Give the backbone structure.
Amino acid sequence: MSNNDKNLFSDFSPVTAAEWKEQIIKDLRGKDYDESLVWKTDEGFDIKPYYTSEDLTPEAKAFQNTAFDANEVLGARAWVNSPKINASDAKEANRKALLALKSGADGVLFEVGDAVDLAVLLEGIELPYCAVSYSLSGNPVAFANALAAYVSEKGYDPAAVKGLLSYPVANADVAGVFDALASLPAFKAFVIKGAVDATLHGDLGDLLAQTTALVDKLEGKDVKAVFDKIAFSVQVSNNYFGEIAKLRALRTLVQQIAKFYGAEISPVEVTIQGSTTIIIDEETKEDPYLNMLSNTSQAMSAVIGTCNYLTILPHNEGLEEVDDFADRIARNISNMLREESYFDKVADPAAGSYYIESLTAQLAEKAWEAFQAQL
């Protein structure tokens, strides 16, 4: 930009938010401003038709400090494209995983039953070069020990093995899992799951309550080490801007929880898995391809909200048989956001958006109230 370009707007006086509103009211010609233009959300927020720098309260500005450092390999915004694979048949799951990893995915999420042969499931998959995660219905301690033993037997660098281990944390021997996976510093031993709640702040409040319950169960362990082993799994809905704000708010809220326990962590250190939500209703039963559109919108919310892992479900899951085509379409949405939309070239895509910054701060405040109500 030349100096002349920089001085382009010097001839124009700045316009305040009050002046904007005054002009809008004139243009409404007698119509009520609030009834005509202010949107009332389920969260109890009043969404204005415009936002300016005057809306950046000190609380909102706090969320501008979540920018990510540039990653030399994957770009400024690195997330793992992690499709979900049913591992009830270990050999077939291995085939699907290898196909995915050769076709744009850089991780997978295996749904594992009571027991699985890791040698069969992971055949040909080099763990240091991709993020392999597991969602369990069986004994998490036994699986964690088996995974640590497998890594040792293969001679992999333990520090290079990354992924998530998901299971019902509330009823598990979390201390046993923590000890079993202590040798894998980058691997997350606890995934705290959210749900598509009636309100975004309710979902966040529940995630925070689950976090404190987990940390309390691990009393006696190093608190910073415990938080280093935690990840959050968030189901993303079609509330586009709300979901962006939810993920952003979660980072700083977890930082506050950690601070209460005496652990200093940065919002950037919080690990979030975003997972799309498949809509099943009369419209999608007639046309499952409608979920391709919502999958794309939800994936954008997750990425702009700064997720670390992204699991995009096949558009026809729960509606008809999922085949390799549906898996490929889901996998390629993440690739499209990288290769065509360049979302991986920006440290924090939402930074500087007055609306998103303001919404994030309001959502965080209400989520904290919801969390305190559960104590």
Notes: Residues 314 and 321 are 10 Å apart (CA to CA). The chain has a mean pLDDT of 91. The longest strand covers residues 230-236.
